[in-house]
Amino acid sequence: MQSTILNRRDIDFLLYEWLDVESLTSRERYQDHSRETFSAVLDTAEQIATDLFATHNKLSDANEPHFDGERVAIVPEVKTALDAFCAAGFMAAGHDYEYEGMQLPYLVTKAAGAWFTAANVATSAYTFLTMGNANTLLKTATPRQVERFVRPQLAGRFFGTMCLSEPQAGSSLSDITTRAEPDPVEGPEGERQYRLRGNKMWISAGEHELSENIVHLVLAKIPGPDGKLIPGVKGISLFIVPKYLVGEDGAIGERNDIALAGLNHKMGNRGTTNCLLNFGEGKFTPSGKAGAIGYLVGEPHKGLANMFHMMNEARIGVGLGATVLGVTGYLHALDYARNRPQGRHPAEKDPAKPQVPIIEHTDVRRMLLAQKAYTEGALALIMYCARLVDEQRTGASPEAQARAGMLLDFLTPIAKSWPSQWCTEANSLAIQVHGGYGYTREYNVEQFYRDNRLNPIHEGTHGIHGLDLLGRKVSIQQGALFKAVSEEVAATVAKARAADASDLTAHAGQLEALWARIGQVTATLYAAGDMNKTLANASLYLEAVGHVVIAWMWLEQALVAARHQDDDFYRGKLQACRYFFNWELPKSAQQLDLLETIDTTTLDMRDAWF
Amino acid sequence: MQSTILNRRDIDFLLYEWLDVESLTSRERYQDHSRETFSAVLDTAEQIATDLFATHNKLSDANEPHFDGERVAIVPEVKTALDAFCAAGFMAAGHDYEYEGMQLPYLVTKAAGAWFTAANVATSAYTFLTMGNANTLLKTATPRQVERFVRPQLAGRFFGTMCLSEPQAGSSLSDITTRAEPDPVEGPEGERQYRLRGNKMWISAGEHELSENIVHLVLAKIPGPDGKLIPGVKGISLFIVPKYLVGEDGAIGERNDIALAGLNHKMGNRGTTNCLLNFGEGKFTPSGKAGAIGYLVGEPHKGLANMFHMMNEARIGVGLGATVLGVTGYLHALDYARNRPQGRHPAEKDPAKPQVPIIEHTDVRRMLLAQKAYTEGALALIMYCARLVDEQRTGASPEAQARAGMLLDFLTPIAKSWPSQWCTEANSLAIQVHGGYGYTREYNVEQFYRDNRLNPIHEGTHGIHGLDLLGRKVSIQQGALFKAVSEEVAATVAKARAADASDLTAHAGQLEALWARIGQVTATLYAAGDMNKTLANASLYLEAVGHVVIAWMWLEQALVAARHQDDDFYRGKLQACRYFFNWELPKSAQQLDLLETIDTTTLDMRDAWF
């Protein structure tokens, strides 16, 4: 039976038929691998996700973590699933052999991870936070910090968090007020030891007993000589603040001064604890006094740059999570539509005839096709980005690596935001296909819709990514990032023209014209002479460019599919591509028209007029 | 302090400044009324909604009705609120003096009802179902049925339901299988008494102890002479099936044979019980034997036509519910945006400066302005429809009444569907304005978003209304309905041209051109020569026409506002109108372009290709 978690056929298509992941095995880092090892990893991921993650997705949603004032209780199925994930080696799947990793390509680790996220986004969040934490430390921490805090994370003994936001500082990180006072000690951390005091908000996985220890990565400010915090992002440093101190032998020691002030109760993603944490308020007294002990990571005042190593990865991770929630919703809706009889064809006038499966109704097919177009388009973009990460890390030349990095930087805000918007829309359509049943918790799709609604908010809101794309990514390095993407789009257009298929030729023309229009509109916006005007409609810009990027991804897929027209799978790809170009892409044209007018409706609006 | 439930200023604007509700007081039915009585009713509604409905909205969401196998437990605040609603006379607010009603215009009753729905959609559902039930019976029931079942509902002693769907028959009512066998008795109901057997699904308010009795209005089929059910809608009849039989003196009698098989657990609207009911399975034995006793309403086999009296009213009610959930979400977001400091203006480079309220950020204003445009546009349409109901009932001539009926018939699918889609989108934007806080149950907006997602499903799905508009409403009576609406739009365009305001003149041109285009596209679709092609993209048609209708509503509002340009309230109206015409209306143009191609992408899609 076809899984309703993910479509393995589609993943294989993306990995083997389109992105040619096998070619990576010729590179030194991946030389022990083959299609067989990749497939074995994907098989294992599917198996564990199916048996242990999907099975408690509704359970942990209905029984969210509970704080009794001392401990956080979580349904035991969560720990069972995470233990199996770690035991199978997924936490270090992409890491060096030196860290007991498997040295799998990033692309394969993302495809494997997709199974866990699609099956249970709340439980898998613990793993992604831990991997992100470990990866950040691997870039910037001392060898000793790596031994004490990274190895146990990659082994699945410790889990990790990222502590950025504070109640008064969400999107505006420069306004954090957590203080880190020097607390130098004898011993290996020496001058790196600090005492932290402050409150951190929205900390996913911030408290639980799923692992032996929790490694918090905390942004805090070291006061200046006058004892005051330095305003702005320049004052921010990065610290390791473990829930329990770790002895020289790696043993768990004293409880650090971190207290859970409360859990947030979310609409979705309920299985992941989300916490307000108080650091250094004296609930515990490590080494005999109040104050959370933290260890400086990297240079002082470089905290934000260090943390951003993690942020870009996390953003693609959010995009992947949004995407696969969309995919699983689509597969559930497809399964329902094939099995639910209701109504008859418009031409059938005999009410005594049996009802037909609802997939026979054109409007139901529209909703399924839209879901397919959104979710498989998004998945293609995420996998394309993951492939770029491999290229950035192991490309044949420094130039190839740098170019992959540029493409990735440009595409990251889109890879985060587009799936967050459109795969949540896909989940809404999955509900609609189910009718009243879809609106009930007796079925699965309403949870996907609730879970997915988080994604346009965290890891930078939709609006923040609009500003990132229009205010930064298109213009930095004299437009080199935009130019690099433009060249790739042009290459796809050329391939489509050469393919000698009338549909693809037409699509190539549409894509080429719209991409050129993005360039013109961007120039017009930058010529506005007032950055307030240039950036006023940045969110709309993000959406317009996003749709064109997904059209590009569809044309890429169609180019592969067009070589096999007799097969249902490829016919489906071509039809979804046609849907995207006919139904969706024109939305971008309309948005670009509006952007070109440098419309000031929202800029002119006044508080008092609301 | 400005209420976050609804904006009374806007309601007064719609009622008094635009729709001139005061002019109705010159009609005989409303002659006892005045602006003072209308305002007193609205004041009372606001007060009760604020004090008793809004106050338990989160409570009943978090503590949904619970069935222990015998009884349904509901938090007591629900009954307290409903009792106050009934005691204040709202159940019969629009009804004749003869029924202890207030004979208020329908428009005023909808404006008053809006307060309860916005404050607590789940609790107010009990009242709307009861009023719809009573109104259906008033049209078709015998005087004795009215005495026994309508009067107690209008007095708030009995509550009502509508029982249409069955597990195998949701959108396809022709497939219901509930049987009604004649069970003639001596006494007043005589030949009208039947015994019903079958299962009814999705019955809101189907079981509770909030009222002395529950009056179920049930669709069922009377078997033919061969004992078989007649296929199709022609076999359907309408029955009153009370939870408890009612004695000749009106006293509550025996329990009827209706059993609660289970409650549905919904994503939102959790405070309203939603039931699977088993009729006639023998759990109870009224008059000594199994079978639910029901009384035929109106003629046999005319059940669907009789029920549809209720459906049109219910559809406008759904549109109103969707709208005011959007409005209250908007008002919550506005309040948050004015009070939440975060970040600084783009030009402010000094991070030591205080953070600004987020309403200062253009992108936040965009999200608020979109919410204002969607929700106030939708509210205008609903109030316009309510005004048409008054015209249909009390218009100066039969021609005026008939014309109002035609406008109403055309607009009903839009009044139901457009707010369901776009005010849910407004609720999503309300979450986004709140950031992470909006995603938590500690704030209010996530509930509005969950509650509102029901509305595109019930009372006819989005797809059903698309078929109704394109397949029926535009073409019946030789296009007379479409012609009537076209004349009204043209009148608005003419007024806007005469207003001598450049913005409005431009908007008039846009509206006129798009309305003409709807006419052309409709003709093209009907010329397709194949109803499968004509109707394939009916949902898109519904959305395209809906946006143009809302633009018309905005131009109407702007015409009033343009007379008072110095006032903040009117400036806001004009700016929201500008937003709708610049940002939203072009979406229709793009959709009409697609419709004109008679695109067959969804029609051509095959099951096997998914």
Helical amount of chain A:
40-55%
Rg value of chain A: 25 Å
Mean pLDDT of chain A: 96
CATH architectural grouping of the largest domain in chain A: Up-down Bundle
The H-level CATH homologous superfamily of the largest domain in chain A, spelled out, is Butyryl-CoA Dehydrogenase, subunit A, domain 3
What is the general shape of chain A?
globular
Distance, first to last CA of chain A: 54 Å
What is the CATH third-level topology name of the largest domain in chain A? Butyryl-CoA Dehydrogenase, subunit A, domain 3
Class from secondary-structure proportions of chain A: alpha+beta
H and E string of chain A: HHHEEHHHHEEEEEEEEEEHHHHHHHHHHH
CATH class of the largest domain in chain A: Mainly Alpha
Biggest chain-to-chain interface with counts: A-B, 98 and 98 residues
The portion of residues forming beta strands of chain A comes to 5-15%
Question: Which helices and strands appear, and what pairs or packs with what?
Answer:
2 copies of one chain form a homodimer.
Chain A (H helix, E strand, L loop, with lengths): L7 H11 L16 H19 L3 H6 L3 E2 L4 E2 L2 H12 L18 H14 L1 H20 L2 H12 L3 E6 L15 E4 L10 E12 L8 E9 L14 E7 L1 E3 L5 E4 L2 E6 L10 E6 L12 E6 L5 H37 L22 H33 L3 H37 L10 H8 L9 H12 L2 H23 L3 H25 L4 H6 L1 H24 L6 H29 L4 H4 L6
Parallel strand pairs in A: 3-6
Antiparallel strand pairs in A: 1-2, 4-5, 5-11, 5-12, 6-7, 7-12, 8-9, 10-11
Helix pairs in contact in A: 2-4, 2-5, 5-6, 5-8, 5-9, 6-7, 6-8, 8-9, 8-10, 8-11, 9-10, 9-16, 9-17, 10-11, 10-12, 10-13, 10-16, 12-16, 13-14, 13-16, 14-16, 14-17, 16-17
Protein name (chains A, B): Acyl-CoA dehydrogenase
GO molecular function, one term (chains A, B): oxidoreductase activity, acting on the CH-CH group of donors
Organism (chains A, B): Massilia litorea
